[in-house]
Amino acid sequence: MPSLINDQLPPVRHYEAAPLTKEQLDYVDLPTIDISSFTASADPNVRSQLVAQVRSAIAKYGFFYVLNHGLSTAQTVRMFDIADVPFSDVDDDEKKKYQSRLKETGTQQGYKPRQYHHIDNGIRDQIEIYSLNHDVNKSGHPAALRPLLPEIEQFAYHNHVNVLYPILRLVELHKWEDMSESSGHTDIGSLTLLYSQPIAALQIRTKDGSWKWVKHIENAIVVNAGDAIEFLSGGLYSATIHRVVQPPADQRAYTRLGLFYFVLATEDVKLKPLNSPILQRRADIWLKERFQGAEVPTMAEWRKGRTKSDGNAELKASATNLGVEEEYLNGVLIKHYV
């Protein structure tokens, strides 16, 4: 990736990250994948080992760290500075001009304002989001962000080609040129790449049903599996249930800034088990259990449906699972963990 640090780049106000918490938290022990070995070696055995590591990490946890991903610490810091611009350098009136039409179109491009999602008992969320497509010219952007679009596009391309491709072997379903936009829940797409930041708030639900914190690792990417991976693998790999909770007391005065790259399969891909001998042996049973006779959606249909319903659907308490609320999206059961 071309250097993002030079004197000719537009100046950006520095985002000061929070100090690490001093509280003793129950962290999950996630695997760490060094993807530099994929690009540094042409040895097929080395690459096979990497694939095996990723497969094991997704099967056991659905979450893992990626190190040596090709961006220096300075480059990552620069991207966090850029990520803060839509929130700190854009006033409320201009934000309204670029607000997402989530319920109408199922498209996330633009701003999702605070208090858009209903959480529970009249409580609404306090998360503000700015989303843009990997094709940065697909929609308009606030004036403060426009000079930074070339860097954002480079960043997206780097994540897709230099991070995603080495760890995801389904590249024919996730081509750069074809890709769409990007409570306890699962993510919509295949993988989510989250650049680690110091405020402790992300938790994952482990196999035994407990919630554990995800620890910050400097200049690491936290990767997690989403719905599309579960569907394409016929449940061999599960979408990971996770949530964002209130940070520890010594970090609550700081703003938690997230830097994400969401990976979705190509829009017309049917989210059904791939044509593989291993998956086909379980595909029919899994399809009946998961879709219960409903039409298997395409990536575009699932993306739009989940986006429209998120925070707006009427949830009902599960009759069989305590602490679980359920909704049906086009006949497909979705669980939310409270």
UniProtKB/TrEMBL annotation:
The protein's name: Clavaminate synthase-like protein
Which PANTHER family does its entry note? 2-OXOGLUTARATE (2OG) AND FE(II)-DEPENDENT OXYGENASE SUPERFAMILY PROTEIN-RELATED
Q: Does the keyword Oxidoreductase apply?
A: yes
Listed A to Z, the keywords are: Iron, Metal-binding, Oxidoreductase
Organism the protein comes from: Gymnopus androsaceus JB14
Positions of the Fe2OG dioxygenase domain: 163-265
| GO MF terms, alphabetically ordered | metal ion binding; oxidoreductase activity
What family does the entry list?
A: Belongs to the iron/ascorbate-dependent oxidoreductase family.
Oxidoreductase among the record's keywords?
yes
Q: Extract the Pfam families matched here.
A: 2OG-FeII_Oxy (PF03171), DIOX_N (PF14226)
Q: Which domain of life is it from?
A: Eukaryota
